[in-house]
Design a protein that fits this description.
This protein is of the alpha+beta class. The protein is built from 13 helices and 16 strands. It is globular, with a radius of gyration of 22 Å. The protein binds guanosine-5'-diphosphate (GDP).
C-alpha cells in the first residue's frame, strides 16, 4: 500500500509534476499544506480562495472506469445539474453507467431563477431534458445549495429513495456538487464543511467515500470539466460577471423586427421578425445593448471588448468566434444561451441567436 497524499477538496492524488493533470500542487504549497494539515491541489485551493476555476485533464477512460463502478453497485445515483446550464451539466453516456440503479435528478442554483418562473414548469423541463438524454429519474428535486430548507428537502428525498443503499453523487464541475454534499453531510452528522476540512482517503480512482451511517456511504465522484461550459470558454475573471450570484431581475425590451441585442460581447440576439417585447434573463450586472440589425456586424467589430464586455479586449482574442443559430417560435419560448441566460420571445417570432462556438443555444417552451 502506497502512502499517497490526497487533496482534501477533490480527493485527487497530489503530484508536483504535471500542471494540467488532476492533483497538481506546487512543491512550496505542498510543504505548507503538510505543516498546516490542509492539503489542497492547486485547483481546489484556487476555487476555495479566489473562486477561480482551472481546467484539469482527466482522461475519458479514467472517468468511464469510475462511472462503471456505479453500474456494478446497488446504489442510488444522485445526479446534480446546474439549471442555469443544463447542456453544460450533461455527463455524456451517463445512462449507460448507472445500470439498473435509480436516479434522483437534482436541479441546483434555483436561487438565480426569478419567482415569476413556475417551479413545476422547471421540474417538467428537467424531466424532459433528462428523458431526451436517456435518463428517467425516480424523482426531481430543485435546490439552492445556499438555502437550508431546500437542502433538507433533498436530504429527505435521498433518504426515501436510497432505502439503506450507498449514494453516488455525480455531476460535472461547477454545478454546486461540493456545496450540496457539504450541506447534506452537515444535516446528517451535524458537521460543517466536512469535505473541505477533513480528509477521507479515497479508495480507488480518486473517489471520496463519506460514511452516511454504519452500513452505507455517500460517494462523491470527481467532476469533469465539460467542454461546452462557459467555464471552459471564458477566462476566470470574465466568468465572474456571467454566473449570477443573486436572483435575476428580468429586463424587458420593446424590440421591433430587424433589431439586435448584444449581451456583452458574448451573445447576440437578432430579432428577424418581432411579435412584440422580449424579456432578457442574465446576470443583473451584465450589460445588454440594443442596436439595428443592419449595423450589428460593424457595431460588434468596433466595440467588442470595450463598450461590449465581458470579455475584456485581452480575453476576446482567446474566445471562440460567435456562431449563428436560427429559431422560429411556434409557442411562447425561451432562447437559451447555455450558462449565460435566456431571452423570452412571443409565439411567431423568428430569431438568429449567436454564441461562442461550443456553447449551445437551444429553444424551450417558456417557463413562465
Ligand atoms: P462543484 O464543482 O460542482 O463541486 O461546485 P461547487 O460546489 O464548488 O460550486 C461551484 C460554484 O457555484 C461556486 O461559486 C458556488 O458558490 C456556486 N454555487 C453552488 N451552488 C449554488 C447555488 O445553489 N446557487 C448559486 N447561486 N450558486 C451556487
Amino acid at each position: 500500500e502506497q502512502n499517497e497524499l490526497r487533496c482534501i477538496g477533490c480527493g485527487a492524488i497530489l503530484q508536483v509534476t504535471d500542471k494540467k493533470a488532476p492533483g497538481y500542487t506546487p512543491e512550496s504549497a505542498l510543504k505548507k499544506g503538510l505543516e498546516s494539515g490542509q492539503l489542497y491541489c492547486q485547483r481546489c485551493f484556487r476555487l476555495r480562495h479566489y473562486n477561480e476555476i482551472a481546467p484539469v485533464d482527466i482522461s475519458d477512460d479514467d472517468f468511464r472506469k469510475l462511472l462503471s463502478q456505479i453500474s456494478d453497485s446497488n446504489s442510488l445515483v444522485v445526479y446534480v445539474v446546474d439549471m442555469f446550464d443544463f447542456n453544460g451539466s450533461l455527463i455524456p453516456g451517463l445512462h449507460r453507467f448507472i445500470g439498473d440503479n435509480p436516479v434522483l435528478l437534482v436541479g441546483n442554483k434555483e436561487d438565480v431563477f426569478p419567482k415569476s418562473i413556475k417551479r413545476h414548469r422547471m421540474k417538467e423541463w428537467l424531466r424532459q431534458q433528462a428523458k431526451a438524454n436517456g435518463i428517467l429519474p425516480e424523482d426531481v428535486v430543485i435546490t439552492s445549495a445556499k438555502n437550508a430548507s431546500s437542502v433538507e428537502a433533498l436530504f429527505n428525498a435521498v433518504e426515501k429513495l436510497r432505502k439503506g443503499r450507498d449514494v453516488y453523487v455525480v455531476g460535472v464541475t461547477n454545478v454546486g456538487k461540493s456545496t450540496l454534499i457539504n450541506s447534506l453531510i452537515a444535516i446528517r452528522n451535524g458537521i460543517k464543511d466536512v469535505i473541505t476540512t477533513s480528509r477521507f482517503p479515497g479508495t480507488t480512482l480518486d473517489r471520496i467515500e463519506i460514511p452516511f451511517d454504519d452500513h452505507s456511504n455517500l460517494i462523491d465522484t470527481p467532476g469533469i470539466i465539460h467542454a461546452d461550459q462557459m467555464a471552459h470558454v471564458l477566462a476566470a475573471e470574465d466568468l465572474k460577471y456571467v454566473s449570477p450570484q443573486k436572483t435575476i431581475k428580468p429586463r424587458v425590451f420593446q424590440l421591433n423586427s430587424q433589431q439586435t441585442l448584444f449581451v456583452g460581447a458574448l451573445a447576440r440576439f437578432d430579432y428577424e421578425h418581432s411579435e412584440g417585447s422580449v424579456t432578457a434573463y442574465f446576470d443583473n450586472n451584465l450589460m445588454v445593448h440594443r442596436t439595428k440589425l443592419e449595423n450589428a456586424d460593424n457595431f460588434y467589430e468596433k466595440h467588442a471588448g470595450e463598450l461590449l464586455t465581458p470579455p475584456t479586449a485581452d480575453n476576446l482574442a482567446k474566445m471562440p468566434k460567435l456562431v449563428a443559430h436560427q429559431f422560429s417560435a411556434d409557442q411562447d419560448s425561451d432562447i437559451v444561451f447555455e450558462g449565460l441566460g435566456w431571452i423570452s420571445v412571443p409565439e411567431g417570432s423568428t430569431i438568429t441567436a449567436w454564441a461562442p462556438e461550443g456553447i449551445s443555444v437551444v429553444i424551450r417552451r417558456s417557463l413562465i
